Amino acid sequence: MLHSKLAAIVQITDLSKLLLLLIVTTSSAFGQNQSIHQLPVSLYKANYSAQLSGLKINAVQKLEELEPGIYRESLSAKNFIGKVDEQSIFKLTADDQLYPTEYSYIRSVFGKDRSEKQHFDWQTSKVHYHKNGSINKELELKAGFQDMITHRLQLRRDLSAGKQVFSYPVISRGKLKQYDYKVVSEQILQTAIGPLNTVKVERVIDDTDKTVIIWLATDWDYLLVKLQQSKGKDGHHLNLQSAVINDKTITPLAITNENQL
Asked: N or C: the chain end with fewer CB closer than 10 Å?
């Protein structure tokens, strides 16, 4: 019994790590010719399935506008072991800059909760980090700093702008970290929806034994389509099942070719 519980905790911890790798949000083309980008930030809801050590996980990610210029992006994943909820509230300024204001991460395993919150105080240039209800740390806040969710959004915005290499300062779990990515190629990818045009992006990591690769839909606002993570013999993957962006349901390409994966 103890062994099964420990194994379950390891699996839900792996789920938490996988969710932190989810990369999603902003502008491209709808279908082949029609623009999908109608708002400063595109609103969406996406459903994913994942496999972690043989365990199936269902996840939902969505982006909502709370009021003009204020948004909330959230991710929720669960199975019979427990659940993970992550969200960020941020603002988009008149000069098109992202500023996170509140970030939270809550994990529940067998009824035991763990919570982390970050409050971004841009007036005092401080980030207040809370773990399980206590104030644990205060960090200096500078322009351009992101949380785990908003840096994913900025990645998509930068892909839309045509960039090929990316680097973001991210405050995660009360620490300042650097997240780097690079574009690898463009591919037609087979998905649960059907074939989709995608761009393949790899996270640049010093650990040569670890790889993180993602595919994002170029015709659908660079929404995350597929994620693969491996470290040694361990591997996890996540796949898009369905999504709606700005009230448009994602549909597959009508024509494919030999580059299809």
From this structure: N
